[in-house]
Every structure is written in structure tokens, then in C-alpha cells.
Amino acid sequence: MFTIKEASEKLNCPAHTIRFYDKEGLLPNIRRDDKGNRLFDKKDLDWIRLMTCFRATGMSIAGIREIVELAQQGEATIAQRRAILEAHQAEIVKKQQVLNEAFEAVSQKLEVYNNIQNGNPEDSFLEYIGRLDTPTNNEGFK
């Protein structure tokens, strides 16, 4: 069993975040000692780690709560939980594609600036324009 401090250190997750998850009902199986302090086992830490990943990908607290509530109902809700995660995964893929395009645009602009600073402004501009004309680039980045 781990204290909240130990759980926080192991997960690299602030204790106040763990307390927030608990207050939001996202940690329904957390035990407490005779003084009321939260106690965590490995399974709890794994779940908190997963919630942290969900949050990092933009899943709402309400979405996580829905998964927790369904999980408490047992294996009969696995299909529903899976559908929620599949929909969330599709959203992540879309966000990742947008970020990849934005990253490429920033990288190209940095290359232009590097070429300008190295005394090749015309070459960098032509390379930049050539990349913008490729079909994979978004017209909005011109």
C-alpha cells in the first residue's frame, strides 16, 4: 500500500491531482486508513496513470467518470467502454494529424530562417515555396 505522497512520487503526478480525481468520484475503490488517509495499491496506481493519459489526450472528467461508472457495473459494459475509447482514439488521431501538419509548417519556417541567417535567402525562399506546392501541404500555410 502507498500513501498519497508515495503514489504522487511514483506516478510523477501532483497529490492535489490525485485528490481531485478522488473527489470527482474517479477513484471509487480507494481505501483509507484508520485516520482517513488515502491508501493506494498497484491497481490504483495503474488506474491513476491511465486517467492521467486520458486527460493528456483531452478526455473530459465527465468522459472518465462515465467509464468509471460503467466499469463498476461489471463486464456487461465492456462494449460501451470500448465504444467510448474508440471514439476518443479517433479524436486523438485527428488532433495528431493537425499537430503533425502544424509541426511541419513550423519546421519549414525555421529552415527558411536558418537559410536566411546563413546568407542564402533566395534559396531558402525557393525551397519553402516548393514545399508549399506539394499536395500534402495545407493551403492555409502559404
Q: Key terms for this structure?
A:
two-stranded antiparallel sheet; 142 residues; elongated
Structure description:
The chain is mainly α. Helices cover 68% and strands 3% of the residues. The chain has 6 helices and 2 strands. A two-stranded antiparallel sheet has the order 1-2. Strand 1 (31-32) and strand 2 (38-39) form a beta hairpin. Helix 4 packs antiparallel against helix 5 (78-117). The longest helix is centred in the C-terminal third of the chain and has 40 residues, at 78-117. It is elongated, with a radius of gyration of 23 Å.
Largest sheet descriptor: 2 strands, antiparallel
Mean pLDDT: 88
Helical fraction = 55-70%
Protein structure class: mainly alpha
- Unreliable spans are none
Strand order of the largest sheet: 1-2
Order of helices and strands: HHEEHHHH
Strand count: 2
Report the β-strand fraction as a percent range. under 5%
Q: How many angstroms does the end-to-end distance come to?
A: 56 Å
The dominant shape is: elongated
User: What radius of gyration results from the CA coordinates?
Assistant: 23 Å
Number of contiguous helices: 6
What does the secondary structure layout of this molecule look like, with pairings?
Elements: H1 4-11, H2 15-23, E1 31-32, E2 38-39, H3 42-56, H4 61-72, H5 78-117, H6 121-132
Antiparallel strand pairs: 1-2
Helix pairs in contact: 4-5, 5-6
